[in-house]
Design brief:
The protein is an alpha/beta fold. Helix content is about 30%, strand content about 20%. The chain has 15 helices and 19 strands. The strands form 5 sheets. The chain has a 6-stranded mixed beta sheet with strand order 3-2-1-4-19-18, sandwiched between helices. The mean pLDDT is about 95. It binds NADP nicotinamide-adenine-dinucleotide phosphate. The site of NADP nicotinamide-adenine-dinucleotide phosphate has 24 residues, from helix 7.
Length: about 425
């Protein structure tokens, strides 16, 4: 018999647990441990609330959690309630699937001003992450700047642009919906340090900006390379650029909000009296390697809200080697050390879609199975060791049944047109569980 701990209950964690169950059958148990009382990580707290079809993948994860060999153990912070060393003693293998929940820093002057937030915080706020329930981003100005040319920048621009009715069927949290209803932001500038051919935006997500009820995207025609140059792009990127060409070709149809793409602009500093008022950028051009270089010309983009969407980092954990440059755990093909592995963004860095985590989890599960084949025994005891430690420390873990109770409470509290009203604070979770 083998016993595994998967730390993190997002996509990477669940795909790994699924793969371990397939590889070991009844010859192993898998504890999926999460510091939050509820499962799904990025699916619940990262994927945009108006992208319900992507969030529906959690139903597949439910099936994994319902397997007899699998337990969800929520409300247990690794590195807090229990250390990595203790987990390694308790389990045959520990697989870290903690994602990359921390914002990368811009490293520019003014980053600490009120009104400057990272995408992890902003996305967490509208998705009901408890750490950001009180973020209260200032939406009282008329301009926002979004830094970065990836899909997260698109999510943030779209959420800031949608009308109340356009959130129908989404699970955006009530506090964010109310604040967005009152928002006076009319101009959203998406700032990219490189050009249209270097965007990391996928076509479906970019195309959505062209169908917003009250906002229209704008691209400066002179920022676009000659159309023949698109031939060199791979098909997805070509399609994305064709959306930008459409946006450049559109006449203003008088919608009240504008999403302006400002390419070739590198953030230099954020200025304002006690709060963000403007983002100063430097005009850039591309060098031969396709990287941005400053031209010395600077100008200001008005912005009382600045959201940096420039990527994420995995937090450090005591005793786990860390790759500073990559912002992830140091690993070779997912292996950190004997009995210690990582998957997902904690392994690869913050890139790829939800589905990318599936082969990633399966690959690491295969490695584990090669190290300790099904049918062998490592002398560990079924999850009891963890339970004893938690009891000793007064940590009240949540189970998958508890999650079902919370889920039912969220569904019961749903607003009209919303599948659920997420519970976002620890004491409210405990209340829903009658504790
Ligand atoms: P991303 O795709 O890596 O994009 C980050 C952007 O930030 C890039 O445009 C990058 O520009 C820019 N950037 C980095 N450092 C910067 C700096 N110091 N100053 C200015 N700009 C800077 O990251 P992401 O948008 O956070 O997305 C993370 C992953 O999640 C991606 O794989 C994404 O596709 C995925 N995702 C998917 C969906 C979806 O499918 N619906 C939604 C959200 C996220 P350079 O290229 O010049 O470095």
């Amino acid at each position: 018999m083998r016993h595994f701990a998967v730390v993190g209950s997002g996509p990477a964690g669940f795909y790994t647990a699924e793969a371990l169950v397939k590889a070991f059958g009844e010859n192993a148990t898998v504890d999926i441990i999460d510091k939050l009382p509820v499962p799904y990580g990025l699916i619940r707290f990262g994927v945009a609330p108006d992208h319900q079809s992507i969030k529906a993948v959690s139903r597949r994860y439910d099936k994994v959690a319902e397997e007899a060999q699998v337990r969800f153990v929520g409300n247990v912070g690794i590195g807090e309630a229990v250390s990595i060393g203790e987990l390694k003693d308790l389990y045959d293998a520990v697989i870290l699937a903690i994602g990359a929940p921390h914002d990368r820093k811009l490293g520019i002057e003014g980053e600490e001003l009120r009104g400057v937030v990272g995408s992890a915080a902003f996305v967490g706020w509208y998705n009901g992450h408890p750490d950001f329930a009180d973020l209260d981003p200032p939406l009282d100005g008329d301009s926002a700047a979004i830094i970065g040319n990836g899909n997260v920048a698109l999510d943030v621009a779209r959420i800031l642009s949608k009308t109340h009715d356009e959130f129908a069927g989404s699970d955006i949290v009530g506090h964010a919906l109310d604040a967005l209803d009152r928002s006076s932001i009319r101009t959203i500038t998406i700032v990219g340090r490189r050009g249209p051919h270097q965007i990391a935006m996928t076509p479906k997500e970019l195309g959505e900006l062209g169908h917003l009820a009250q906002a229209e995207p704008e691209v400066e025609a002179e920022d676009l390379p000659p159309v023949e140059a698109d031939e060199a792009l791979e098909p997805g990127a070509r399609k994305s650029v064709s959306h930008l060409r459409d946006f450049a070709g559109h006449d203003d149809v008088g919608k009240p909000k504008h999403i302006h793409f400002d390419f070739f602009a590198r953030p230099v500093r954020i200025e304002g009296e006690g709060r963000a008022e403007r983002l100063v950028v430097e005009r850039t051009k591309l060098d031969e390697a396709g990287q941005s270089v400053g031209t010395g010309e600077t100008y200001a983009v008005p912005a009382s809200l600045v959201v940096s969407c420039i990527g994420y980092q995995t937090p450090r954990l005591d005793g786990v080697p860390y790759d500073e440059r990559g912002g992830k755990f140091a690993n070779v093909d997912g292996k950190i050390a004997d009995g210690l592995y990582c998957v997902g963004w904690a392994r690869r860095g913050p890139t790829g879609t939800i589905g990318t985590n599936r082969p990633d989890g399966y690959e690491v599960a295969e490695q584990v199975a090669a190290q300790m084949p099904a049918g062998t025994d490592g002398g560990k005891t079924v999850g009891k060791g963890l339970d004893a430690l938690l009891a000793e420390r007064g940590v009240a873990a949540t189970s998958f049944d508890d999650w079902r109770t919370i889920e039912a409470a969220e569904a019961a509290a749903a607003r009209p047109d919303s599948p659920r009203e997420k519970i976002v604070r620890h004491h409210e979770w405990l209340k829903a569980l009658g504790r």
